[in-house]
TrEMBL record:
InterPro entries: MTH1187/YkoF-like, Thiamine_BP, UPF0045_domain
Protein's name in the database: Uncharacterized protein (TIGR00106 family)
Species: Actinomadura namibiensis
Thiamine-binding protein domain span: 3-92
Signal peptide: none
SUPFAM superfamilies registered for this protein in UniProt: MTH1187/YkoF-like
GO CC terms of this entry: cytosol
Amino acid sequence: MLVAFSVTPLGVGEGVGEIVAEAVRVVRASGLPNRTDAMFTTVEGEWDEVMAVVKAAVDAVAERAPRVSLVVKADVRPGVTGALDTKVETVERYLAGE
């Protein structure tokens, strides 16, 4: 499965990058395939392992913020691996006219 999620600390002022970095650090340490962009971090793996990473990322932010907002979007396709890259590659092929 792919899970795209965004963790936002609330009640800590406008500059949240340092705290959000704690969530990304948890994801990267998980060893699961992942990618972070300006809006979301996407993680690929099995349901239980991905959801455990999301929880750990939220917990890391909650250690430094009185409130946490979490947005989650999931693509659940049992047996599919490598979707983090192949979904983008497919769109790029279409854009290239293949």
